[in-house]
């Protein structure tokens, strides 16, 4: 019955019998038969079926919650009974936003793979959010905690930002003396699907919210960072992207007495998101533990 429950959960996650069948490597008729058997066993209708979509009945919603708990409990029990010193092995699929992946994750992968020779990593640098259930991703590294309550999260590091420009740009257009001066500058912006962009600044008890504009916007940090390096404007990005460039003089800190952020509260923390309960696949646990240690160095 737990196998049928797993099939039912996959159908709900993907929204159709055919998609679930493709992922599970089953015939669509076999998927439908397993759902029919569940409905017969529990003497209830779990799904409303139409030619366009599937939707849960009220009983189906209750069943889904219980099925997820039972399946998760079985996974946890299997992991608990397996040997604790099992060597990590198999394919590890990682999705990480482009800038962090390029600067922080890719350089440490060879060290991880040297430690665990039976592991193969597949990594995707993508600024789009991914669904760990439907896209078969083991770990997603993102700014901000999970919105999906079925996912688990482990914080990797705080995401503080810096405000920078090239010396050439500042010599030509002048360095800002106060946050409001940024309204007179070309600011290189992250695309957050908003009509107006604001940068936020704090100094002690002072707080300022400044509207900024510019001629270049990107969803990821690399394009606007390159533009700043080549004298295109002022950029606010994660400090881990710019610390080395500031240290070698490629970029210059602007308004160093102010603490910038990309949102009113903060610029967000960086998390590793993953499926499963307390007892996860050894390769997932090993990689997250390795990440936490490596990112502190």
TrEMBL record:
Q: What's in the keyword line of the UniProt record?
A: DNA-binding, Transcription, Transcription regulation
Keyword Transcription on entry: yes
- So which domain of life are we looking at? Bacteria
Under InterPro entries, the record lists: LysR-type_TF_proteobact-type, LysR_HTH_N, LysR_subst-bd, WH-like_DNA-bd_sf, WH_DNA-bd_sf
Instruction: Specify the signal sequence span.
Output: none
Which residues does the UniProt record annotate as the domain HTH lysR-type? 1-57
User: Would you identify the family this protein belongs to, as annotated?
Assistant: Belongs to the LysR transcriptional regulatory family.
**In its UniProt entry, what is this protein called?**
LysR family transcriptional regulator
| Species name | Shewanella sairae
